[in-house]
Amino acid sequence: MLRNLLMWPRDILNYYLEAAAVLFYLYSSIIAPVVSVIISLLITFSPLCIFSFFYALWFCYDYYTPERGSRPNRWARKWKIYEYVANYFPIKLHKTSNLSPQHNYIIGAHPHGILAFGSFISLCTDATGFDRLFPEIHPTIATLKGAFWFPLRREQLLYMTGMIAVNSESILYYLNQSTKGRAVAIVVGGAEELLEAHAYTHRVCLANRKGFIRLAIQSGAYLVPMYSFGENDVYYQIPNEKGSFVRGIQGLLKRIFTYSPTIVLGRGIFNRFIGFMPHRRPIHCVVGEPIVVHKKSNPTQKEVDELHALYCRQLNSLFEANKLKFGVSHSAHLQFV
Questions:
Q1: What is the pLDDT of residues 42-51, one digit of tens each?
Q2: Long-range contacts of residues 268-275, Cβ cutoff 8 Å, at least 24 apart
Q3: What is the pLDDT of residues 152-189, one digit of tens each?
């Protein structure tokens, strides 16, 4: 009993450190881009404008870094703050097969969820043990190129996460380097899948997403499906069925900005009922078996379609084989939209 009493203050401290770490994640994902623009404008129209001038020179000089492999930092992947984010839910990483460092990989990450907590923590950090489970594999995530247009924020993405731009030139550059053991993760469903991220549902926008399949063939990178059980469950999103007024507005904003805002309900820092914090619900990221891909610079549409169909079957098999382990009912099935 005495031991439990002594552990209690530490547990409380960790509880709030985890919440603070997730607050930082939310700030970095949602608020930091806007803040970086405001700070840059304030500095530009102030006596400190010389700093804006030099940063503009640096920005131009460094413009293509997100498409040239970024600036991955092994030390940053091990920051303690990421462990606190992982422990908040908690997020766990599971492997079903080894990944040989003799090959490169494209990891299809599903589903997007609201803020892709599982994919980011599992692949951009070592907080869930990626370096231990898959030694000699060097992962990163490809994200929207527009994320690198925000001053100062881009430096955070390049240095703290090692993310690259999600376009064909960037991904092929990353995978076609002489060193093997590279893995680039693509959250395939993107902004459209975010709108499908309703708690306790399993819809993935994959039926017509074949660009990553073509890139895999062009680079010879093996395809690896990954499914994050529980990713959709950490927030409740307001109803936005296709054809509804809400979905129409979201679709319009997505066409303009390539990203659509959502209205979600979470929990509070000091309560479990309402707030902007994600619910403390487990996220289990399961990495599937790699699909062998033979390199071909100009694949035919038939070859792309056949590999896409195989990938969908592998992802569905991964879901069915693991759903009962992670609290998904036997009657639930993966839906491709």
A1: 999 999 899 9
A2: 269/16, 269/19, 269/23
A3: 889 989 988 899 999 999 999 999 998 899 999 999 99
Residue in the block written with tokens 């092994």: 74
What Rg, from alpha-carbon coordinates, does the chain have?
21
* One-character DSSP codes across 28-44: IIIIHHHHHHHHHHHHH
Look at the block and give the residue holding tokens 């030139």: 169
Structural element, H or E, at residue 59 = helix 49-61
Percent over 90 (pLDDT), the chain: 83
Tokens of 64: 């293509």
Give yes or no for a contact between 94 and 284, defined as CB atoms under 8 angstroms apart. Answer: yes
What is the phi/psi pair of residue 95, to 5°?
-115, 145
Which residues are bridge partners to 228 per DSSP?
285
Query: Is-contact 205 189, C-beta < 8 A?
Result: yes
Residue 243's CB is within 10 A of a number of other CB atoms, namely 7
How far, CA to CA in Å, does 283 sit from each of 75, 119, 332? 24, 10, 17
Rounded to 5 degrees, φ, ψ at 84 are: -65, -40
Sign of CA dihedral 290, 291, 297, 300: negative
How does the average pLDDT of the chain come out, rounded?
93
* Total residues found in the chain within this entry: 337
Give yes or no for residue 53 having a pLDDT over 90: yes
What pLDDT does 160 receive? 86
**How close are the terminal C-alpha atoms of the chain, in Å?**
53
How far is 99 from 102, CA to CA, in rounded Å? 9
Match 């940053």 to its residue by tokens: 76
DSSP for 234-284, written as a single string: GSEEPP--TTSHHHHHHHHHHHHHSS----EE-B-SS-SSSSSBPP---EE
How many Å separate Cα 43 from the centre of its chain?
A: 32
**What average pLDDT score do residues 218-223 get?**
98
Question: Residue 111, class by beta-carbon neighbours within 10 Å (0-12 exposed, 13-18 middle, 19+ buried)?
Answer: buried
